[in-house]
Amino acid sequence: MKPSLNAYQRSFSHQRILFDTDLLSPEITQSLHRACLACAENQKKETGVLDFFCGLYLQDRTAITPHFTGDFAAIVNQNFPIHRFGREGLTLKVMLDHIASTDEFESGTPGFLFSLHYSDELHRLLWLSAKLANAIGKKASLKDVVAAVALDKAWTDELRRSGLVPSRSIADFERDVGTVLFHESQHMGEGWPRAKEFELDEALKPPFKLVLSTPSGAFRPVRAAKVKLNGIEVASVSWPNEPTASVGVELLSLNKIEFELDGPSFGSLDVTVRGTRS
Known about the structure:
Elements: H1 7-19, H2 26-41, H3 49-59, H4 61-64, E1 68-69, H5 72-79, H6 93-101, H7 120-134, H8 142-150, H9 153-162, E2 165-166, H10 173-176, E3 180-187, E4 195-199, E5 204-213, E6 220-221, E7 224-229, E8 232-238, E9 244-249, E10 254-262, E11 267-277
């Protein structure tokens, strides 16, 4: 669990976000302002990660929606029953009403002010976005924010629970590589061994999954393949109707995996067994 920011850390971060021109691009600053204003008008005490993404949608619907699947409009309506697009979304409703009803404007009127309170996670997200952007000599833009969110499972999980899922497949070393117990690329060559053994890695726990797919890389697909695990047939594929298979499996301390292939010269397939990292 991430530690909470203390009052001085929060104050310092807040000051930099507001006034450091090297951190955030104008469109991100404006999106943040929209989110904070909408939070104020909807009686939310602080602006969080989901609120900020709603602010990005209020800023430019066409820019944020390609990066996620989900009903962005419905999520904004649920999270911010009171909201406005365009220039009006940058100004409090009470101020808009006052301007419409009188030619006078009293600066500093308390009813025209609202507080800015960012959650600790939003502080972290904005700074990580700026870090990614600053590394290549620019200020944080929408794409930097989207990239930063993808680096933290807690943030993607929060958006996912609200109905927003990244629209692209995102490479993740710990998830994609760190969970592999066994991997083998099989080819049709006669000298290719059709049986292998592998040990159970105690760092990886159940549930275990075996994934079979053809072809492997740029090689040709096999016509059909069967895989046995510890003497039991667990998965099969056929080209082109069923090129992939994914099944839950049970493992022993020492496991034997066997392949039965039918296919053309240079036919190939991949088999991967994964566990769960605790």
